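Minutes, project check-in
Item: structure for the 161-residue chain
Input as provided by the requester:
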Amino acid sequence: MKVLLYGYGNPGRQDDGLGIAFVERMKAWVVEHGYPDFEFENNYQLNIEDADAISDKDLVIFADASQEEINDFCFSKVDGSADISFTTHAASPGYIVKLCKDLFHAEPLVLLIHIRGYSWEFAEGISKKAERNLERALEYAKKWLMHPEKIQDDYDKMKFC
């Protein structure tokens, strides 16, 4: 099973770097344990070229900071039918999935992990409260990603928004 973990955000804006931090820490964990078939990507924002990057994957997990009133973190399914937007500066996960389907006739399972952040000033480093949320998200995701082929089967047990 080919898995892509893709974090996006701006680490120079405190908690906006949560998605990138999530992927970097997951990468270290995957390398440490020798899990095969994982790929990793980080960027400030999603781009239309990412439709190609996800087209040959079975599972894609986008990771991003959230300003929403969620407890700590949660997942949402990205299917290309909701939150489809594109500007000259950014593309939404839904838009990337739609492009993937339209251009490459591929439909990987795509999830977005929302990690709650609190501080968005121009500064490096994640706030202490957001760091706790990140740790909870990492521990939860590791349980699922030890056996990514089971995510589809156990989908109804995941922590969704």
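Outcome recorded: Residues 3-157 form a domain with the Rossmann fold fold (CATH 3.40.50.1450).
No further action items on this chain.
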